[in-house]
């Protein structure tokens, strides 16, 4: 599209003959015509002309700037991008079109008007400064949201065709859900399951909404318990790791061969044995907490699955959701 624009601009130059202009226009139309014929051959003539024309003018898969809405690929992520990313891409799109246009038309405007056009330079400077400022503000915004440098580049400048590179957890959180869908929760983040359940509940009505509302309340209680479990795990895992057990065991073995009754080493040996006993209890507690967390997270995942099924209007979905909700409530009652 850019090359087409450049060739048509050159064809409009007053310093060329009518024949040269016609040839430049003809050459400019070769690429779009080739794309049209390729789309026609691929479709086998089974698509209407409007659809073939739309496919012919799809952007290349590496394209990351603005593109007319009706000509975007079905897998294009433009509408799902956060607003700052769309602003950056729109600004750069305007920049890469407007700046060459100013450069190419400056001589022509001077020839037509017969006067200097110093304002062209000011306009070009304004374009460069504006685009640079928008980018410089957007990069810190991306880093504040926990994106790595490569994720930042992909979000602000990368191709908007769906690819594995967009599948990182940080990017998934920033992308809006597909039209009519709810963004699935991150697999190991309990709080995100509650968010997804609330999003589904907001789209339901009638008895389905009532059942989802009760499930949402249970989900939030379950998330609170999981977060308490995580908090305790962070503490006990530092004291009950295998390294601490091995270190104390080695110290005890070293002292046992050199200790004599009644001296300080005997008292130290007794303290180390008591410490080893406490560390072993902490390690067991850590294993119990880990097992409990895995079980509770599995229940939360099951709850999310049943809430998500309500969107499919399955007549048995409400009963299945109420069953797993009751199971979770019974589990929470024992904690």
Number of strands: 0
What fraction of the residues are assigned to beta strands by DSSP?
A: under 5%
**Total helical elements:** 13
Given as residue ranges, the uncertain stretches (5+ residues, pLDDT < 50) are 4-8
Shape: flat
Give me the secondary-structure category: mainly alpha
Largest sheet: none
Overall mean pLDDT stands at: 78
How many domains, as an integer? 3
Order of helices and strands: HHHHHHHHHHHHH
Radius of gyration: 33 Å
How much helix, percentage-wise, in residues?
A: over 70%
Distance separating the two termini: 64 Å
Write a structural description.
The structure is a single chain. With 335 residues, the chain is an all-alpha fold. The chain folds into three domains: 1-57, no CATH class; 75-176; 190-245 and 280-333. The protein has 13 helices and no strands. It has helices at residues 2-11, 18-28, 30-43, 49-56, 83-113, 119-144, 149-157, 169-174, 190-203, 206-239, 242-256, 264-309, 317-333. α3 crosses α4 (49-56). The protein is flat. It starts with a helix and ends with a helix. The model is unreliable at 4-8 (pLDDT under 50).
Describe, in short, the structure shown.
With 335 residues, the protein is an all-alpha fold.
List the helices and strands and how they pair.
Blueprint (H helix, E strand, L loop, with lengths): L1 H10 L6 H11 L1 H14 L5 H8 L26 H31 L5 H26 L4 H9 L11 H6 L15 H14 L2 H34 L2 H15 L7 H46 L7 H17 L2
